[in-house]
Automatic annotation (TrEMBL):
Family: Belongs to the class-II aminoacyl-tRNA synthetase family.
Any single Pfam family the record assigns to this protein: FDX-ACB
Keyword Transit peptide: yes
Regions crossing the membrane: none
InterPro entries the UniProt entry points to: aa-tRNA-synth_II, aa-tRNA-synth_II/BPL/LPL, Fdx_antiC-bd, Fdx_antiC-bd_sf, Phe-tRNA-synth_IIc_mito, Phenylalanyl-tRNA_Synthase
Enzyme Commission number: 6.1.1.20
One GO MF term attached to the UniProt entry: ligase activity
Gene3D superfamilies in the record: Bira Bifunctional Protein, Domain 2, Ferrodoxin-fold anticodon-binding domain
Coiled-coil annotated residue ranges, if any: none
Enzyme kind, highest EC tier: ligase
Naturally occurring in which organism (per UniProt): Nicrophorus vespilloides
Location(s) in or outside the cell: Mitochondrion matrix
Catalytic activity: tRNA(Phe) + L-phenylalanine + ATP = L-phenylalanyl-tRNA(Phe) + AMP + diphosphate + H(+)
Protein name as it appears in the record: phenylalanine--tRNA ligase
């Protein structure tokens, strides 16, 4: 059967009812923007890596952290979720949030997916950098592919407490109380929290300047406890920079580590680059246009580039209205993917502008406004109409909706 398999990065996978990767999404694999010289995402990545190289050195003056930036984004469900204690019922696992290759494999939703395997391989201080894939809405700050950097730092008792024999990492307990894992001593958690926060405030300052205003917000991740988000004040708004926390001990035990505790964090590169260089639209990172790329051509990691919009081409807005299929399994993310596949990168935004249920027929109607804008030229209404019509036709055919 010609349609029963799918090839990704040279490997063959059987399709099943989970398969929802699209050829459009697969076309982003191996672009590797985060290692493309002078690409703004690579500049940000270099800045962060340099900060870790400079801040953490061994007695010989060599960097302690090692960097992994070419691990394939195809991961197993075990890597992306199970190894991180993400419950089977957790919403981040659903088909409407992830790009599944089949029920066993997916495009990673975070670089944290590699945490357990690298610890198992014997590493105790590392950075993982790569492309991650999430089904999401469409606007100037969301794109189904973006880039993350994750870090892990483990400590033995002697490293953390400088050989002070009085202090211990562990005590008896296997649950959570007072916002802390009961298997950890209070002194170990507090010292680790202090070191983690000091490291990340230093990172924020090295990116956005010594005077950057920040605040810590308590949060929850399935794989850390306690957990925090670091927010930065940026033009009167609080911007979430990263998530972090003390690693859940069972992750380490499962990976064969019984005498260490550690911290971890994860951060999105696009968000940092957009603020740092004042890049207004997330699609620009994928531009191959010299008008964009040349502005970063001579930059080093420390150069302060301010992106200048070459010219702002006009938007074109077209609405699409349809009755949802009667079987009720319509999901907006399916529609967004279809719009991306058919419309490609000229789609700037898709917004649900109206939704109602017909009083008699009980059918649900959705109206979406699709905003089209090309990054490098003016689109004509005729060009847009052709694409828009194709989206209507495919939505009717593939999603079973009835165009109104
Ligand atoms: N994986 C988390 C995310 O994608 C970030 C994170 C990494 C948080 C490591 C805590 C520890 O949002």
């Amino acid at each position: 059967q010609a349609n029963s398999g799918i090839e990704v990065n040279g490997n063959f996978y059987l399709k099943d009812e989970y398969t929802n990767v699209t050829p459009k999404i697969l076309s982003y694999l191996n672009r590797n923007l985060h290692i493309q010289q002078n690409h703004p995402l690579c500049l940000v990545r270099d800045r962060i890596v340099n900060y870790f190289y400079k801040s953490y050195k061994n007695s010989r003056g060599n960097p302690i952290f090692s960097v992994y930036d070419n691990i394939s984004p195809v991961v197993s469900v075990q890597q992306n979720f199970d190894s991180l204690l993400i419950e089977p019922s957790h919403p981040s696992r659903t088909k409407s949030d992830c790009y599944y290759i089949n029920n066993n494999y997916l495009l990673r939703g975070h670089t944290t997916a590699h945490q357990s395997e690298l610890i198992q391989a014997g590493l105790d201080s590392f950075l993982v950098i790569g492309d991650v894939y999430r089904r999401d809405e469409i606007d100037s700050t969301h794109f189904p592919v973006f880039h993350q950097i994750d870090a892990v730092r483990l400590h033995t008792r002697d490293q953390l407490f400088k050989n002070n024999d009085e202090l211990q990492l562990f005590e008896l307990g296997d649950n959570v109380e007072g916002g802390k894992q009961t298997c950890h001593t209070l002194e170990a958690v507090k010292l680790l929290e202090h070191q983690l926060k000091q490291c990340l405030v230093g990172l924020a300052q090295s990116l956005f300047g010594k005077d950057v205003e920040y605040r810590w917000v308590e949060t929850q991740f399935p794989f850390t406890c306690p957990s925090w988000e670091l927010e930065l004040k940026y033009k009167d708004d609080w911007l979430e920079l990263l998530g972090c926390g003390i690693m859940k001990q069972p992750i380490l035990t499962e990976a064969g580590v019984v005498d260490q505790i550690g911290w971890a964090f994860g951060l999105g590169l696009e968000r940092v680059a957009m603020k740092l260089y004042q890049i207004p639209d997330i699609r620009l990172f994928w531009s191959q246009d010299s008008g964009f790329l040349n502005q970063f051509k001579t930059a080093t990691a420390d150069t302060n580039v301010v992106y200048k919009t070459v010219s702002q081409f006009p938007q074109c807005k077209n609405d699409i209205s349809f009755w949802l299929a009667e079987n009720g399994d319509f999901n907006s993310n399916d529609f967004y993917d279809l719009v991306r596949t058919v419309g490609g990168d000229i789609v700037e935004q898709v917004n649900l502008v109206d939704s109602f249920v017909h009083p008699k027929s009980k059918q649900t109607s959705h109206c979406y406004r699709i905003t089209y804008r090309h990054m490098e030229k003016t689109l004509t209404q005729e060009e847009v109409n052709l694409v828009h019509k194709k989206i209507e036709d495919e939505a009717a055919e593939k999603l079973g909706v009835k165009i109104r």
